[in-house]
Design goal:
Blueprint (H helix, E strand, L loop, with lengths): L4 H14 L9 H22 L2 H21 L8 H8 L3 H11 L10 H18 L10 H6 L21 H12 L3 H14 L4 H13 L3 H14 L4 H11 L24
Length: about 270
């Protein structure tokens, strides 16, 4: 969160080698998993952080998110021991030490990626909500110079693009779990994403997809409908809503005909 652009590029190239599908000794399933980690997590993060403008907009979104948390005075629910320790005694130096301690382990194995990504995410969250003056790394000086006119006055810039969703990490994690058909884990990430970004159509589209695969067609239909209400062009909802629309309704047990007469048939007319 506080690193510079040069370090981001260096880290990206290193991860590109680690997650390359042709790494010797991996099974076809492991190669597929590594490719998905790279395309769903590493590449989107690099594209965002390597672009000065998008990076600035994203950091502004993080500041707003932190301010909102502080105003609501919500207590954080943390799973990792390091994040809990940082939350008890928050300090920027300690935050950096903990991140440096965890980050080398993040991509040691494919099995460790989600575990250590979760820890780093919690450390980032604690840093956001506990530091009074957030000191993010600045963008490159070339970009700053480009935004000014020759006479030293700032030029008018085009309207900013929509900020990245604060639930981006959770959505990426959910998609990874969905690709592995781990529906329960995917739903946990989606519920967390819904709390962070309740007006995001993709959240409800993925929620519907998971519910559909958990044989809850009626609930999935409602989720797809909500996604399309927020964004009529949401691709996942458009792709799957017809599947839940045509799902056969549950069969009701046939009603047995009433027998006339008394006990054991006595009294039949």
């Amino acid at each position: 969160m506080t690193t510079d652009v040069a370090h981001i590029r260096k880290k990206f190239l290193k991860l590109a080698k680690i997650l390359h599908p042709d790494v010797f000794g991996r099974t076809s399933e492991e190669k597929e998993t590594a490719t998905k980690y790279f395309s769903k997590m590493v590449s989107p993060a690099y594209q965002l952080l390597n672009n000065d403008r998008e990076r600035g907009e994203y950091l502004a979104t993080l500041r707003m998110f932190a301010q909102n948390k502080k105003q609501k005075e919500e207590a954080l629910t943390l799973s990792s021991e390091l994040a809990q320790k940082l939350y008890r005694i928050p300090h920027e130096i300690t935050y950096k030490q903990y991140v440096e301690q965890v980050s080398p382990k993040q991509y040691e194995t494919l099995e460790s990626i989600l575990e250590y990504t979760s820890i780093i995410s919690e450390l980032n969250l604690v840093y956001l909500v506990t530091q009074p003056n957030l000191s993010f790394a600045t963008v490159s000086s070339a970009a700053s110079a480009a935004s000014a006119s020759p006479n030293g006055n700032a030029e008018s810039s085009p309207a900013p693009k929509p900020a990245q969703s604060p639930a981006l990490r959770n959505l990426n994690m959910a998609e990874l779990f969905i690709s592995k058909k781990q529906w329960t884990d995917a739903l946990k990430e989606i519920i967390a994403a819904e709390k962070l970004d309740p007006n995001n159509a993709k959240v409800y589209a993925l929620k519907g997809l998971v519910q559909m695969n958990q044989n809850a067609a009626a609930i999935a239909k409602a989720s797809f409908q909500k996604a399309l209400k927020l964004d009529p062009k949401e691709p996942t909802a458009l792709k799957h809503i017809n599947q839940v629309n045509t799902a056969a309704p549950p069969k009701t047990p046939e009603k047995q005909p009433d027998k006339k007469g008394g006990l054991f048939g006595w009294g039949k007319k």
